[in-house]
Amino acid sequence: TFFWKGIDAWDRTPSNKLVYSYRLGNSLWSQFSQNSYHTFLSLPSGKHILEVKARDNDFNIEQSPARVEFYVAPPVWKTPWFIAGLFIVFGAIVSFVVIVIKQRNLDHLKLQLFTNISHEIRTPLTLIKVPIEEMISQEELHPEVKKHLSLMQRNADRKSTRLNSSHTDISRMP
Questions:
Q1: Whole-angstrom distance between the N-terminal and C-terminal Cα of the chain?
Q2: CA 139, 145, 150, 151: dihedral to nearest 10 degrees?
Q3: Strands 19-24 and 2-3: what pairing?
Q4: Which residues pair with residue 22 across a beta bridge?
Q5: With 0-12 CB in 10 A as exposed, 13-18 as middle and 19+ as buried, what is 155?
Q6: Distance from the CA of 48 to the CA of which of 2, 34, 89, 170 falls in 20 to 30 A?
Q7: How far, in Å, CA of 9 to CA of 15, rounded?
Q8: What DSSP assignment string belongs to the chain?
Q9: pTM (2 decimals)?
Q10: Which residues pair with 49 in a beta bridge?
């Protein structure tokens, strides 16, 4: 909102009886009225020039209008720092999503590697356990041999149990 006030150079018209006309930039002059203010809505951002001229009761019009230059700042969302901030925030979000996706892929690959390795260990372990169980079940074995075979069977069972529990624990991880 701009306010203005004038005086009659010849002192014939009181200032409250003067009428005014204004224009913004190179637009047409407004009709003369007693309004001593005007509110400009929706002005584009940038530099503007407002000119106001007065007319007295004798219809004498001021030859050199009052002139004021002013600048309308752009809205916040059109400023370079705001746009740069948006790009930074957007880039950070995208980077975070990419990192999370890569981490999940890496975790999946680790689990798959562990599964493959445990399978490679479990297969020969099973191939060892079955013949040991068959040999232990034979009656005519020497007690010392049976003792060693029982030790081998316990160790193979323990390794198999640890392998299975480790695989279960890892597969439960998020």
A1: 61
A2: 180
A3: unpaired
A4: 52
A5: middle
A6: 34
A7: 10
A8: -EE-----TTS-S-GGG-EEEEEETTSPPPPPBS--EE---SPPSEEEEEEEEEE-TT--B-SS-EEEEEEEPPPGGGSHHHHHHHHHHHHHHHHHHHHHHHHHHHHHHHHHHHHHHHHHHHHHHHHHHHHHHHHHT-TTS-HHHHHHHHHHHHHHHHHHHHHHHHHHHHHH--
A9: 0.52
A10: 69
Q: Which two tokens stand for residue 63?
A: 């030859």
CA distance 6 to 22: 13
Kindly state the tokens that stand for 28.
């047409």
Mean pLDDT across the stretch 92-109? 92
**Dist. CA 31–CA 50, nearest whole Å:** 15
Alpha-carbon torsion, ordered 117, 122, 124, 128, to 10 deg: 160
Distance, CA of 92 to CA of 87 (rounded, Å):
8
What pLDDT sits at residue 83? 94
> Quick one: which of 37, 70, 74, 72 has its CA closest to 52?
37
> For residues 146 and 151, what is the distance between their CA atoms, to the nearest angstrom?
9
pLDDT digits (tens, 9 = 90+) for 117-156: 877 777 777 778 888 888 888 878 788 888 888 888 888 8
